[in-house]
Specification:
CATH topology of the largest domain: Rossmann fold
CATH architecture of the largest domain: 3-Layer(aba) Sandwich
Order of helices and strands: HEHEEEEHHEHEHEH
Number of helices: 7
Helix content: 25-40%
Number of domains: 2
Strand content: 15-25%
Largest sheet: 5 strands, parallel
Structural class: alpha/beta
C-alpha cells in the first residue's frame, strides 16, 4: 500500500507530474483548505506559480455532521447527494439552514486566509486545483463546478490519492487529472499518510503569505 510521509512529500511528488507547467505565467494553484493548501504550496513553489485558496465545505447530515450529504463552494454552487438525502428523509428547510451555516464558515475562512485581499483573478488562467486526497469527491466536485463558471483557460485537478470510482467521476469534469495512487479498498485519506495532522488556520495563512505573489512569469 502506498503511503506518503506527509502532505509536503505528496505535494513534491505531484509537482513532478506537473513539470510541464513550470514557469508558465498563466498558472495559478488553488489549495482546498486546510490540508490541501500544504500540498498545493509545494506545487506552487516548484512551478513558480502564485497560490490561493478555493474554499468548499461539506454539508453534514442531521445529528451526524461527519456524514456528508453534499457540499457547497465559495460562490454558492451546491452539489447534493440525492440518494442520501432521500434515504435520511432530510427536509429542504434543513438543507437550506446547513447550506447557510457552511457558507458563513466559508466567508469566515476567506476573510482570515486572504486578510482582506481579493481572490487572485482567474480569467485566462491555467488553474491547478489541489487537495490532500479525495474520498466521496463531493467538496471537490462543488469546487470544480464553481470554477467552471469562470472564464479560465484550463482546469487541472491534482490529488495524491483517491478511490478509483471517485477519481474517474472527477476526471470527466476537468481538463486534466493527476493522481499518484488509486487504491482499493479505500477507507479514508488519512490511511495513506504517516503524518496526517490537523492543519491549522495559522499554517494556511503563513503559506498563502509566502506564495501568493510567487511567479516566474
Amino acid at each position: 500500500m502506498i503511503r506518503f510521509r506527509n502532505r509536503e512529500e505528496a505535494g513534491k511528488l505531484l509537482a513532478q507530474r506537473l513539470e510541464d507547467l513550470r514557469g508558465d505565467p498563466r498558472v495559478v494553484v488553488l489549495g482546498v483548505p486546510r490540508g490541501g493548501v500544504v500540498v498545493a504550496a509545494e506545487i506552487a513553489r516548484h512551478l513558480g506559480a502564485p497560490l490561493d485558496v478555493y474554499i468548499t465545505r461539506k454539508l453534514g447530515a442531521p445529528g451526524n455532521p461527519e456524514l456528508a450529504i453534499g457540499a457547497v463552494a465559495e460562490d454558492g454552487t451546491l452539489v447534493l447527494d440525492d440518494k442520501a438525502i432521500y434515504m435520511l428523509a432530510i427536509s429542504d428547510a434543513y438543507l437550506e439552514r446547513e447550506r447557510e451555516r457552511q457558507q458563513e464558515e466559508i466567508r469566515r475562512r476567506a476573510r482570515i486566509y486572504r486578510a482582506g485581499r481579493p481572490p487572485i483573478p482567474l480569467e485566462g488562467k491555467r488553474v491547478v486545483l489541489v487537495d490532500d486526497g479525495v474520498a466521496t469527491g463531493q467538496t471537490l466536485e462543488a469546487a470544480i463546478r464553481a470554477l467552471r463558471k469562470q472564464p479560465i483557460a484550463e482546469l487541472i485537478l491534482a490529488v495524491p490519492v483517491g478511490p478509483p470510482s471517485t477519481i474517474e467521476r472527477l476526471r470527466k469534469l476537468v481538463d486534466r487529472l493527476e493522481v499518484l495512487a488509486t487504491p482499493e479498498p479505500f477507507w479514508a485519506v488519512g490511511m495513506f499518510y504517516d503524518d496526517f495532522h490537523q492543519v491549522t488556520d495559522e499554517e494556511v495563512i503563513r503559506l498563502l503569505e509566502e506564495l501568493r505573489g510567487t511567479s516566474t512569469g
